[in-house]
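Regression test case RT-17, inverse folding.

Input:
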């Protein structure tokens, strides 16, 4: 692997391409504080997680338009209530035209509710579990979410974290292109070791720049064509 470029160079390039530091800063995502993450109730996390699951591969605006009906049908996404939906009740949802009738994602909603309820009971809230996970091992959180939850593999887990406000980088095509350009990796970091190596580079850049993972991720994406 080539020598990793200092993040100051990446930042300067992104600022130039964005039309200045102020313009770039406006485009950066905002991660929530640990206190803010803990303040969010479990039902809102399950709703957001389910929104990400059902949006994967579909037009996001179409899914969002249906979400009030999802909220009604899935008991406002209260995890303990959703976790005990009977099999026949789930199967009946395949005839419910107000929602997206994808059997795998419908089943995933109940599974994810039960998993979230268990995590919440152990850690004093799902938000507390997210808040306490160190950003220096965010790829470890990706792996844990993929293992414990359903339909949160690939980019879905990182995108959910970004939506929830947990600081995380996301390996979009532009971010990967930039990581290659600046010597952080070669090709797409697919396996666990490759992602851990990328995490180490992000940690190095965080120490240098004082920026959050989500901010650096967006800056990287803005540094390439």
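Golden output:
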């Amino acid at each position: 692997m080539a020598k990793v470029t200092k993040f100051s160079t990446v930042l300067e390039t992104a600022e130039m391409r964005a039309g200045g530091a102020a313009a770039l800063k406006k485009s950066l995502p905002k991660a929530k504080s640990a206190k803010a993450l803990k303040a969010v109730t479990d039902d809102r996390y399950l709703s957001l997680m389910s929104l990400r699951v059902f949006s994967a591969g579909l037009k996001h605006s179409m899914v969002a338009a249906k979400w009030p009906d999802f909220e009604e049908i899935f008991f406002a996404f209260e995890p303990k209530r959703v976790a005990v939906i009977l099999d026949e009740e789930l199967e009946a949802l395949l005839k419910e035209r107000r929602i997206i009738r994808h059997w795998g994602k419908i089943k995933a909603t109940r599974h994810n509710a039960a998993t979230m309820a268990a995590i919440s009971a152990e850690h004093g809230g799902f938000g507390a579990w997210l808040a306490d996970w160190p950003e220096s091992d965010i790829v470890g959180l990706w792996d844990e979410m993929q293992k414990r939850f359903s339909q949160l593999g690939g980019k879905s887990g990182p995108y959910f974290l970004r939506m929830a406000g947990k600081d995380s980088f996301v390996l979009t095509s532009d971010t990967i292109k930039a990581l290659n350009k600046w010597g952080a990796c070669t090709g797409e970091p697919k396996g666990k070791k490759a992602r851990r190596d990328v995490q180490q580079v992000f940690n190095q850049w965080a120490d240098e720049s004082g920026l959050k993972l989500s901010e650096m991720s967006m800056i990287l994406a803005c540094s390439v064509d």
